[in-house]
Amino acid sequence: MKLFKYKSKNSVNDKAFGKIKTETFLFSWISEFFLKAHKSESSHVITDEVCNDLDFDELFMFLDRTNSKIGQQYLYNQLRVFDNDTKIDKEEEKWIQKIAEDDQLRLVLEAQLSKLKQTEAFYIAKLFQDKPIEAPKWYRLLPFLSILSLISTISLSFSTAMVYVVPVLIIINMVIHYRNKNNLAHYISSLPELVKLQTVAKHLSGHDSDIFKDEKLEKSISAIDKVKKHFYLFQMENKLQGDMTSLSWSILEIIKIILVLEPIIFFKALNRIKNNQKQISILFNSIGRIDMLYSISSLRLGLENYSLPVFLNPEEGIKAKGIYHPLIENCVLNDIDTSSKSILLTGSNMSGKTTFIRTIGVNVITSTALNTAFAEAFQLPKVRLMSAIRISDDLMNEKSYYFEEVSTIKKMITSSESKHYHLFLLDEIFKGTNTIERISAGKAVLSYLAKHNNLVFVSTHDIELADLLKEEFDLYHFSEIIKDEKVDFDYKLKEGKLKTRNAIRILDINEYPKTIIQEAEKTAERLDLNSGQS
């Protein structure tokens, strides 16, 4: 397996390429596209529990090198929704490489995509994900009211009777105008951004007709081109508010009130939006995807090493060489091969067990979503990922830690019985209960999960559990090194179960009273004898 590391000629205007972002991440907006997306036909969705266990937000901040808010939303969705039709294919791999090597293409992408970097661009997805506001029944009367108001205002110069009519009309128009402001607030930012989106797509398509994957993009560009004339008033409104030109804004506001222009144009624009939601979606996904490819290219440039994952059949398991966690600086590389069995890890606290389990989970996500593995080589089947690593009490519902853990693992048991191939990540199973029941229940559950042709990675402090499962699981361990009264960790994965017990020794190093140390050692010896261990 080839270890990748390519170089790019970073120009003066291209200093951010390959670098981690330093901006603020607005996850409530970044995640909204994902939260509202239809997922019923998706092969697998990464749950909130898995995201919490794998520090997903921190991972996203490291992975995200997009230029636009649309790109951020698309990348977030890509990382959480596993679909066969959204995987990175060979042609897109060529584009990822081309972006890294072609300075001109990269700078064109940066210049165009950055036009959608303002927070307002987050609103674009609402235009095709939300149901448009319905026009009120009295909407059809507005054109007549507009004409009547215009004629009445003009007639003021030669008809004194209009002095009584015009104020009444203006009051009615003001009520309609400002009542409509509540509706307009939902769209005043998104409509101008839609025009930018269409312009960016048009420019990039003109630069290179092969840059987009969706063949229907040209039709979508043309469709929005025909309707964007209805957005000019809102673009002007947005610009005047942004420029704080009070006089210009006031004059425009008076004209809009007299002619009831805003509600008339607003609901016409909404009708156009409603009829072109599919076209807007195509534009959004096309721009989001090319920005994601740019992001992958930039990410890879900034890595010391990475590899393209190879997808295997389920029975071949996971094979990794030099795998590491991208969020850990100078992370120790490890190898693993699960071609025969699931994996049980033993070791003391802080030795690396949980981090290694998270490393596997993170690499499964990035390999599946971004075709990028943080490893010298990574081979894996297409799996559904579930985890029970960071569980906490649900005090609002009066649930203890143990009951939360039982509930989470029950979901795994149910899922394990399906036809789909799963990867289950567990850290210290049933640690919310006593030793005997923890080992007994843990053994039964882990045997059950492994029997259903799924893959399990589990860590434990219980050596007894390793003994009970040695025929069903491959055993590995992490260990600490005690030298010169100091405790150190090498974070290297080693075959077999942990054979040394250093917990009491570490108490001694930390100068616990000798009486405590002596009593602890005697108790440990007695427990070993009672359990049949010498």
Structure, explained:
The radius of gyration is 31 Å and the shape is elongated. The N terminus is likely disordered. The two termini are 45 Å apart. 52% of the residues lie in helices and 11% in strands. The longest helix has 25 residues. Strands 8-9-10-6-11-14 form a 6-stranded mixed β-sheet, sandwiched between helices. Strands 3-7-4-5 form a 4-stranded mixed β-sheet, covered by helices on one side. A two-stranded antiparallel sheet has the order 1-2. It has 22 helices and 14 strands. The protein has 2 domains: 286 residues, no CATH class; 191 residues, 3-Layer(aba) Sandwich (Rossmann fold).
Please specify the SSE layout and strand pairing:
Blueprint: H1 27-30, H2 32-36, E1 44-45, H3 48-53, H4 56-63, H5 69-80, E2 81-82, H6 90-101, H7 103-113, H8 126-129, H9 142-155, H10 162-184, H11 190-207, H12 217-227, H13 232-243, H14 246-259, H15 261-275, H16 277-301, E3 310-312, E4 319-323, E5 334-337, E6 342-346, H17 353-370, E7 377-381, E8 384-388, H18 401-416, E9 422-427, H19 435-451, E10 455-460, H20 463-469, E11 473-477, E12 480-483, E13 486-489, E14 494-495, H21 503-509, H22 514-530
Parallel strand pairs: 3-7, 6-10, 6-11, 8-9, 9-10
Antiparallel strand pairs: 1-2, 4-5, 4-7, 11-14, 12-13
Helix pairs in contact: 5-16, 6-16, 7-11, 9-10, 10-14, 10-15, 11-12, 11-16, 12-16, 19-20, 21-22
